């Protein structure tokens, strides 16, 4: 996702800020959505009851969205055309606490951040999905929200999207996304960095094919195929300066590539048929998972997993929210029209996202 700007990145390390339109984002973690997918599918598989003890691992910070966001009438309503389609907001959390403090310089940083926001739309029929990543640098209008302690935080205009989580919390992030998209969020998932790293190590690594090199102080990879362990994978998806044009948008492109590689690895290894591996993965992930109250038990996750187990890797499309560089601050982006409206309309009505809605005026892959 300046010394006081919780979303800043360059002043944390004391390095000089890059020029406009090449400012690097800090540690986005798009692939956490698949960590959840592995977990729920594991729970939903044969013998899922064996993992009943994993309930003790689930964090107790679950969020009651209906209570936190107020009367359901004030939230977006589901379109009748969407049927039983589901929308999940997946957040990658950088709490810098516990195991996270030892990851890639985490001990130097304080506070909690969510540099990943991924709205996953699971289509009616539950056989395909669309994941929309929202760049952390997107300027949004934050609605009035209430913190977990009851404190009311007034709304604000033109704030960086990932500042919402760090300043107000996950429920307000849901409310902000609903205001931005007019899409009803059914569930909330939050996974931290430590869980991501352990997931990759639990499956024995992931093979990623890069079409261009990655060159950072922590990770140097030539173009081509590489087998990455958890630490290397974490550094890859956190890349700040060494890929494409160095922007946050370029990193999203890289993370989408890794996302598909992770899905492919899970399918290739047929992990869902191995109770031992599944238990190890589930054990690690339940210790790194926060959800809304509707998913805050292994049984609920298992039921959810059963409903989405037919979503194959090739049936999951990843799209970046179409954005344009902000005219007042080229280091920030804003939703681009008419692409933005086209995208969210397709999500709301459970229809195919048109190609025109996938073209972002601002991009970081070149």
Describe it for me?
The structure is a single chain. The chain has 11 helices and 16 strands. By secondary structure, it is of the alpha+beta class. A hairpin with a 7-residue loop joins strand 15 and strand 16. Helix 2 (32-44) crosses helix 10 and helix 6 crosses helix 7 (230-237). It is globular. The chain starts with 9 loop residues before the first helix and ends in a 17-residue tail after the last helix. The model is unreliable at 1-47 and 96-111 (pLDDT under 50).
Distance between the termini: 21 Å
- Work out the helicity level: 25-40%
Instruction: Summarize model confidence as the mean pLDDT.
Output: 75
What integer value in Å does the Rg equal?
A: 19 Å
Q: Tell me the β content.
A: 15-25%
Overall geometry: globular
Quaternary class: single chain
- Tell how many strands the DSSP assignment holds: 16
Number of helical elements? 11
Largest sheet descriptor: 6 strands, mixed
For the largest sheet, list the strands in their spatial order: 13-8-1-2-3-14
Low-confidence stretches: 1-47, 96-111
Structural class of the secondary structure composition?
A: alpha+beta
What string gives the helices and strands in order? HHHEEEEEEEHHEHEEEEHHHEHEEEH
Search tags:
two-stranded antiparallel ribbon, globular, 366 residues, disordered N terminus, alpha+beta, 16 strands
Give a brief rundown of this model:
The chain is 31% helix and 19% strand.
Secondary structure: elements and pairs:
Elements: H1 10-13, H2 32-44, H3 65-69, E1 86-94, E2 113-122, E3 129-133, E4 139-142, E5 145-146, E6 152-153, E7 156-160, H4 163-167, H5 170-181, E8 187-192, H6 193-202, E9 206-210, E10 214-215, E11 220-221, E12 224-228, H7 230-237, H8 248-269, H9 275-286, E13 289-291, H10 298-308, E14 316-320, E15 323-325, E16 333-335, H11 339-349
Parallel strand pairs: 1-8, 3-14
Antiparallel strand pairs: 1-2, 2-3, 4-7, 5-6, 8-13, 9-12, 10-11, 15-16
Helix pairs in contact: 2-9, 2-10, 6-7, 6-9
């Amino acid at each position: 996702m300046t010394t006081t700007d919780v979303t800043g990145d360059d002043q944390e390390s004391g390095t000089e800020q890059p020029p406009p339109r090449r400012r690097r984002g800090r540690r986005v973690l798009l692939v956490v959505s698949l960590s959840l997918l592995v977990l729920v599918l594991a729970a939903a598989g044969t013998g899922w009851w064996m993992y009943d003890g994993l309930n003790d691992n689930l964090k107790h910070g679950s969020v009651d969205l209906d209570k936190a966001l107020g009367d359901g009438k004030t939230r977006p309503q589901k379109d009748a055309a969407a049927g039983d389609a589901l929308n999940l907001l997946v957040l990658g959390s950088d709490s810098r606490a516990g195991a996270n403090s030892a990851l890639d310089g985490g001990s130097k940083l304080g506070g909690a951040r969510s540099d990943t926001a991924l709205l996953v739309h699971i289509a009616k029929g539950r056989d395909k999905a669309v994941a929309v990543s929202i760049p952390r640098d997107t300027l949004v209008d934050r609605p009035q929200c209430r913190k977990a302690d009851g404190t009311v935080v007034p709304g604000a205009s033109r704030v960086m999207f990932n500042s919402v989580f760090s300043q107000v919390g996950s429920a307000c992030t849901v409310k902000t996304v609903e205001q931005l998209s007019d899409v009803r969020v059914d569930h909330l998932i939050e996974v931290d960095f430590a869980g991501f790293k352990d997931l990759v190590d639990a499956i024995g690594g992931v093979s990623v094919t890069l079409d261009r090199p990655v060159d950072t102080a922590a990770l140097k990879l030539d173009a081509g195929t590489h087998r990455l362990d958890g630490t290397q994978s974490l550094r890859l998806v956190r890349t700040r300066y060494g890929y494409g044009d160095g922007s946050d948008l370029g990193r999203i492109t890289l993370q989408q590539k890794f996302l598909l590689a992770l899905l492919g690895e899970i399918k290739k290894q047929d992990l869902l048929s191995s109770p031992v591996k599944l238990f190890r993965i589930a054990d690690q992930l339940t210790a790194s998972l926060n959800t809304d109250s509707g998913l805050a038990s292994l049984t609920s996750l298992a039921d959810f997993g059963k409903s989405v187990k037919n979503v194959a890797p090739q049936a999951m499309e990843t799209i970046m929210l179409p954005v344009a560089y902000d005219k007042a601050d080229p280091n920030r982006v804003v939703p681009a029209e008419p692409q933005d409206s086209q995208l969210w309309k397709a999500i709301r009505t459970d229809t195919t996202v048109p190609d025109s809605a996938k073209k972002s005026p601002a991009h970081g892959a070149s």
